[in-house]
Design brief:
9 helices, eight-stranded parallel β-sheet, Arginase, Chain A, globular, two-stranded antiparallel ribbon, 10 strands, alpha/beta, about 325 residues
Amino acid sequence: MTNSYDTGRLNLPFVGISTFGKNPYQPDWGKIDADFAILGAPFDFGTQWRAGARFGPRGIREASTLFSFGHAGAYDHEDDVTYLAGVRIVDIGDADIVHTDTETSHANIEAGVRAILAAGAVPVVLGGDHSINIPCIRAFAGRPLHIVQIDAHLDFVDVRHGVRHGHGNPMRRAAEQDHVTGLSQLGIRNVSSTAKDGYDAARAMGSDILSVRQIRKLGVEATLARMPKGVDYYLTLDIDGFDPSIAPGTGTPSHGGFLYYEVLELIDGLTKQGNIIGIDLVEVAPDYDHTGTTTILAAQILLNTIGRIAHNRR
């Protein structure tokens, strides 16, 4: 007996072009026909210390080929579910980045997200530093959403030395948007990019802030219970939310972070109690991790998230 995946080319992960998961490439943003569309946002001008996240999209795409064996989905024996089977994913390439020009670069990212939404697909944006969340959230204007942020840093700075659109500002800019109904900021810890007045402002503007230790004491179910149910969520995942022991390839690593299954279980719970309508994954800087572990983690969490969104919607 011959299985369907035993015919044709073997097409192993290290062969071919590195689109995300080796899914089809669609360069025409007016012809997106998919359930999920991958957009690269290789922008890192918002960093305050180590740059390098401009190479995040390329690194994540290459790492994602590890999971592209083409076996008609990914079977999870714990859940007894084959995730990703029949899920249509396209990679639409990168937003054009104009060096040193934040406003134009952000506008180009927003245009990419708007094109995905116009096609009825879920945008999955590969950063880039966390400032790329600003144009992503703008693209959802008029569509109420609750932001779930997984991160080491609060990113709630208002203005610092005239900077409003750096990677320390995105959650403040998001909270100012009329369509953002609230924020759950998870994993926040240690020395932060935001001073106490920023934490006070975040709570006053509707944020629920929990550290890794607080979430471990609460447990996943109690953490999820603090979030609104039956709503649209936007998930913004900073790779430094994970512990640097498993994600060293980032500009601002912070010890004491999440482990893989802690984050996956939170995301899985979100897909069961609401609808994730957009995702960005940011701050992957591959050059700080020559093992490739960080980019593999990023690709793995994204593919598992896409699979769970699709399965739990059904």
